[in-house]
Amino acid sequence: MFERFTKGARAVVKGAVGHAERGGAAVVTEEHLLLALLDQEDTRAAAALRELCPQDRRASLVATLSDARRRAGLSRADADALADLGIDLGAIVARVEETHGAGALAGDRKDAGWWSGRRSFTREAKTVLEKSLRVALARRDREIGDEHILLALTTTGGVVAEALADHGVTFASVDAEVSRPAVP
Hints:
Layout: H1 7-23, E1 27-28, H2 30-39, H3 44-52, H4 55-70, H5 76-84, H6 89-100, E2 120-121, H7 123-138, H8 146-155, H9 158-166, H10 171-179
Parallel strand pairs: 1-2
Helix pairs in contact: 1-2, 1-8, 2-8, 3-8, 3-10, 4-9, 7-8, 8-10
Keywords: Hydrolase, Protease, Repeat
Protein name: Clp protease N-terminal domain-containing protein
Domain Clp R: 2-184
């Protein structure tokens, strides 16, 4: 599948691995894919993100992801479901962090055990990459670009899609942006 990735899409995958390494994460997640997309400059996804989530709103997007990481990656829907059962997720996070330190539920800590030197991708991150192929095929595109990864991220559900939607980045809005003809 990776042979069909454009240079930009490959840069996103490599960038995601870099974000995981710098963050001390044992695995590459969808969040890392999004952070790598935000690093891109001269690609279709970068242009769409510049339009839909301008630079002045990116700090808010990254903060939303960070907050979700503190909640062990649970989405608002998950938190609401727990609240309906009488479980206060905020109180649990506070208690765990009080005992084990800030970010204890984030799962970002390096494993002290044996490590092969290569970070694996979570099932959800792999799903995003597989969906990017499906999105490209549905759009009748020959290659998988970073815009397909961004479109796939908006459809997966969960924290990343929720954070993107909260910042106006939905499948429909990204699709409209990347479908516009390029202006010379």
